[in-house]
Amino acid sequence: MTRDGGGSTDGREARLPSGSPPRARRVVGLVDTDSFAKWGAHLLAGAPAHWELELLTVATPRSASRAQLRSAFRGLDDRLAHLAASPPAPLDVDAIIERLRLDPPDAVLVSLIGPMAELVLEEVHRRVAPRPVLVTGLPGISFPAKWKGVFFRARADLFVLHSHREVRAYEELATEGGVAPHFALATLPFARRTSTAGAGPGAVRDAVVFAAQPSVPAQRSDRERVVGWLVATARRHPEWRVVIKVRAGAGEHQTHREQDPYPDLVPSDAPPNLVVESGPMSEHLDRAVALVTISSTAVLEAAARGVPALTLTDFGIGRHLINEVFVGSGLEGDAIDLVDGRFGTVRAEWMHDNHFHPESENDWAERTEELMTRRDVGTLVDRPAARRSRGGVLRRAWERKNALGPDDRSTLGVVALAIGTPVRAVKRAARRVRRVLRPVAAPTVLAPTSQRSQSATSERAGDREQELVPRRDPR
Questions:
Q1: What is the dihedral of CA 313, 275, 249, 111, to 10 degrees?
Q2: How far is CA 73 from CA 13, 37, 102, 137, in A?
Q3: Whole-angstrom distance, CA of residue 77 vs CA of residue 361
Q4: 8 Å CB contact between 331 and 317
Q5: pTM for this structure?
């Protein structure tokens, strides 16, 4: 693993210098959408005890609702536990930056969707002095590495990832793109190993929980197929509650935009034991017989609790499905496995490189502490943006408008939009032309995988034609 600014990472547990007690640190977390709110809050909840924590919600067109925030903030430590009952009201970005300017903290965790992260990182660099250490990251599964994730967050001092495999992939991608690696390791908060007895002695386990995703699969017909499989499972197993666990209610926003929500696709004649529910995933896993998904991070949460799981591979295995990471995990299966009630357990040989490394190998807190020490003595170095064409005031106005949408009502934003929209359209058209003209190698496609025998899988796979859709980088 590459260190930013000297030193080496040797797998040691994060440690502070011995001797005098560690200096109290003030760290502010900034969150916006549902998944970034949950990730940011729970990452900070595992921070060293001498960090004084504060969490603020940034107002954007896609900010989490109060109900989503209450759900995201369940199970935090004593420093942040009050947020579950009283989530912070959203503040616009200028109010946030002004608070940071008037009372600069030691560090800021920028747990925001890509364009907002870029905007906030730039504004802190420009307007807050002394500048706090800027830490950022991505919630959930971040393999394969995505350039937009690096691009939007290049100015952060530290970028938190959650597996050795992710760190290697992002270091390679950043280096290829001309960005100095700045990645650190933390256990995904939802993948911390816990007991399956979260609901207490004698808890009833009667639910097969399907973790819905807003953008996977993308096509309505595929989502209808998934609902059909869940209906069939509920009919085959009347002793189970088959739960379609959604992350947002009507009118609520999510990190990824959703078309054709699953609740709208449930047929009117569905069996009564097929239900749609929201709420914290942890509470659903307390009752779960098994967790089913295409590629939701919830599968890691289930594996950490020892709950059997199934990652459906009926649509193939590829980047657009965010399920390549599960190859060889022991959790892959298909609709036949689901309806038959056949689920997997995670393979030990897969775990260390994929989210289940020992917590002693995490270095994000130690490296953040080192960066705060550099800030104390004035040696914290600003990292350059990945965006090369800055364009001055008008470019910043465009980025702000792109991040905030209708919430940015500035005159300069309107001007930037009027000028930038046709320019962006021309650039996108040029990129499409280049893609058409450039020879493209046929994508490598992995066939569906089953919990059943390899021979049965091979026979069925020959009848299916799998094709990858064009790459989409949502974050």
A1: -50
A2: 26, 8, 27, 18
A3: 22
A4: no
A5: 0.79
Contact by Cβ (8 Å): 334, 313: yes
In 3D, which of 223, 230, 311, 237 has the Cα closest to residue 276? 230
Sheet holding 288-293, edge to edge: 274-277, 241-245, 207-211, 288-293, 309-312, 332-333
The residues, any chain, with a CB within 8 Å of residue 266's CB and separated by 6 or more, are: 227, 231, 244, 274, 276
Tell me the pLDDT tens digit for each residue of 371-414.
999 999 999 999 999 876 655 665 666 566 566 666 666 655 55
With bands split at pLDDT 50, 70 and 90, how would you rate the model's confidence at 48? very high
Contact 55, 80 (CB under 8 A): yes
DSSP annotation of 262: G
Cis peptide before 132 (omega within 30 of 0): no
Q: How far apart are CA 175 and CA 462, in angstroms?
A: 39
Edge-first strand order for the sheet with 25-31 is: 51-57, 25-31, 107-111, 133-137, 158-161, 183-185
Q: Examine the pLDDT at 116 and tell me if it is beyond 80.
A: yes
Q: Are 412 and 391 in contact (CB under 8 A)?
A: no
Q: What is the DSSP letter of 446?
A: B
Write phi, then psi, for 140 (nearest 5 degrees): 75, -155
* pLDDT (mean) for 281-296: 94
**What crossing angle do the helices spanning 392-404 and 93-102 adopt, rounded to 10°?**
120
